[in-house]
Amino acid sequence: MEPHTAGTFPTLARGRRSRSGGFTLVEVLLALGLLSFAIISLVGLLSVGLTGMQGNIQRSVEAQIMDWVRSTAQAAHAEGTLLSLAENNPHPFDQAGLSLAVSPTGVPIYSATLTPVQKPLPGSAQTLWGIQVVIRSPARGNRALCTNALWFSK
Fold first, then answer.
1. By three-state DSSP, how is residue 143 classified?
2. Which of 40, 54, 97, 151 is 20 to 30 A removed from 26 (C-alpha atoms)?
3. Tell me, what's the pLDDT at 103?
4. Domain layout of the chain by residue ranges
């Protein structure tokens, strides 16, 4: 090989190939293909994880609302005013499931409609009193997200 001077390029002896430290086009394309496959897989898993997380948040909010209904209904049942719970329907709740009757600074995201029901206990003269609870969200088309019932014996 001839010495390299400014403005000239080195020439190779006949029959020898220069092998620099770079990658071939095939190697680069293979690496990009593997990288894109990995990224697409991760993006797919991300959407599944977000969907699961949204479902868990909704169930947590529903549990928070049902806890408020249970404690309020137990207090009303002890006072003999269980039927009065349906007078203030629907009951507003914020995004965390906290009652806006207690904390009126939030924005109503959920509502719970309470309907008193009674049912005779089979084989007994006792009657069960209960509250049917329907939780809705105007942000989700006001469809029923959850329906539950709490029962109390007289």
1. coil
2. 40
3. 60
4. 25-153
